[in-house]
Amino acid sequence: MGPDTYAVAQAEQLLSLPAPPQTEIQRELLAEFLRNPFLDDDIQGLAVRTGRRRADLLTGLEALVEAGLLQDAGRRGFMLDLEQLDPEIEYADKMLVLPEVGEEVEEAKADESALADVLPFGVALLRPEGPQIMANAAIGRLLELEVETLDAAAFIARTGCDPALICAGEVATTFPLEDSGLEVQVHPCQYAGAPAVLVVVQDQSLQREITQVHIQLQEELFAELRGEVAEPLQLIRTYLENPDVAALGTARAAFEQIEMFLQSFLLQIRSED
Amino acid sequence: MVLDIRNLREEAAPVAEVPPSGPDLDQLLELATNARPGEQARAIGQLRLLVPSATGLERLLEIVEDPKDGRRLPAIQMLGYHRPWLASAKAMRRMVGLTHKERDPDLAAALVWTLRQCDEAAEFLVREERAVAREAALGTPISRQTLAAITAALAAGLPADIAAVLLSKFRGMHPALVRYVVDLLFELQPGDHLLRKLLAGLPQLPLFELFVEAGQTAPRVLAEAEQARIWQRMARIAAQFLQDEPSTELMCHLLSKSGEDESFARRHARFLQRTMQRTDSSLGADLIGHLERLTFRASEDKVARLAQLLVGLSEQLDGAAGHRAALLLEDWKGRSAALKLKIYHLEQGIS
After folding, report:
1. Interface of A with B (CB under 8 A)
2. If DSSP codes are grouped into helix, strand and coil, which group holds residue A144?
3. What is the CA angle B293-B252-B196, rounded to 5?
4. Contact, A240 vs A254, CB < 8 A?
5. How many CB atoms within 10 Å of residue A210?
């Protein structure tokens, strides 16, 4: 155990915790106190430390005090209750599993981040009220925004789509973004027990270009079919309907024209002889 | 003749019980570092109760200064818990020096924790180690001495969560400091996005007075055109933000001032109208209550001015707040025929 792992290691050794599995907030609070057993922050300090609202922390703190894990530290502060611990009792079966703060969690986050960054499309997870949960580098590049600053407000300003409305309506939407060739998909979802929106941005410019070429080719083919097949067929039909009046030469020429056209597409069936 | 009672006194004097000698500071730190869980807990409990003397503080500092001592972390944490050394400039310099020198992120973060709520904590906001910068952000107080370091660190690009810690502290800033922050931002010239984020964290009332009430002109002589341009940019962003996300405090101030001061209401009519239109409907009940208080036995002119704002606001409200706004308008209509006509025109968009 190196000195850098002191806090977590101490937390595990010091405080095998006599409590059932805690909620995320309680776990987070406890992790802060275990990292520094001398910590005596008040609720405001803890709110800033954990990045959570005071109201959200209140229940968690009450539960921890009730469970005998925290105690009043005076001046509205809280501190770890060390007297409640009985070293003779094995708490292994009830032990609160603390995340390995310095290693596994960071490693997992790094892995997730690396994975997200190699995706060939942009992806971001946003809370409807604004904050970003995650975003990969591609979405920043595609939307021409800084990834760190991509939140609901920036997304609305860039695309005009409000994630809060998507969340409220619970219906996914897909729309192209101006003439940039980008396609934006916004899906409502749940993340960590709270509503969120998954944004996927794909560069469809190549696909769009291919579709355009395809449409153009099709239109040219139809135009050729009209001139090279449909019109000669009409001449042949006129001859067959009234062979006495219509000119055979014209019908033959029309037939040859169709035959040449089919030949140019290698579609002519060879005669058996 | 006087009776000699000195012997009696000596005999009567109670024998002071010598308390059993417990482990000393060094032993407790040793137990807090290496002992079994139960003993560790007891040791830390005792270290919390043990208020170190001057000699004890010196001993703790010696331990912290010794890079080979394995008890440095509990010693630092104890120094952070018992902080009579804050009164000594020499001890403070020593702690700051140690923090600057410390390369281990956990120990450095613990050292920064010992400096919490001291201006010196701001020196560590730009440390590369995330844990150290985070602890510095948590411990840095908002004061005239730290604001330059805070704004510089934010402009340099802190990680989002650490920046959020600092920005959350901005909201509780004393209004008198807002002008100083604006001056710092003026010097730093951050980009639009960052500027908006920083201004959004500041108390809105002083911002309004500085950028909107002052007529969007720099209150000092801006000789350079470039400086004037920067100031205008800041004013534009601040005004936009205030219109987009007005706080209850700002809204109440605007309503009060509009009611009291006709020229204020006229000067900021457009700003007020836009702000009302974008007011978060969750603030509606508070604002209606404020309007009720403002117009209690108020003059007809004042009610007419506030009616213009309430009509705009009531369009944003629904549910109970919307119903209450409609009732208040009806109440005002009942005060006089002229007021009734005026409000009717406002509702119809005629005036």
Report:
1. 3-4, 6-7, 10, 13-16, 36-38, 40, 45, 48-49, 51, 79, 82-83, 85-88, 102, 132, 146, 148-149, 154
2. coil
3. 170
4. no
5. 11
DSSP state of B296: T
pTM over 0.80: no
Q: How far apart are the first and last CA of chain A?
A: 92
CB A187 within 8 A of CB A172: yes
**Interchain proximity A148–B160, CB inside 8 Å:** yes
Structure confidence by residue, pLDDT tens digits, B227-284:
778 888 888 888 888 888 888 888 888 888 887 887 888 888 788 878 877 777 677 7
Is the ipTM beyond the 0.90 threshold?
no
The tens digit of pLDDT for each residue in B159-192 reads: 888 998 998 888 888 888 988 998 898 888 888 8
CB contact under 8 A, A14 and B37: yes
Residue A97 — pLDDT band, cuts 50, 70, 90?
very low
List CB contacts (< 8 A) between B157 and chain A. Answer: 148
Question: How far A222 CA lies from chain B's nearest CA (Å)?
Answer: 53
Length of chain B equals 351
Residues of B in contact with A15 (CB under 8 A): 37, 41
DSSP classification of residue A122: E
- Cα dist from A228 to A234, A256, B3, whole Å: 11, 10, 149
Q: Are B100 and B128 in contact (CB under 8 A)?
A: no
Cβ atoms of B317 and B281 within 8 Å: the answer is yes
Contacts for A236 with CB less than 8 Å, ≥ 6 apart: A251, A254, A255
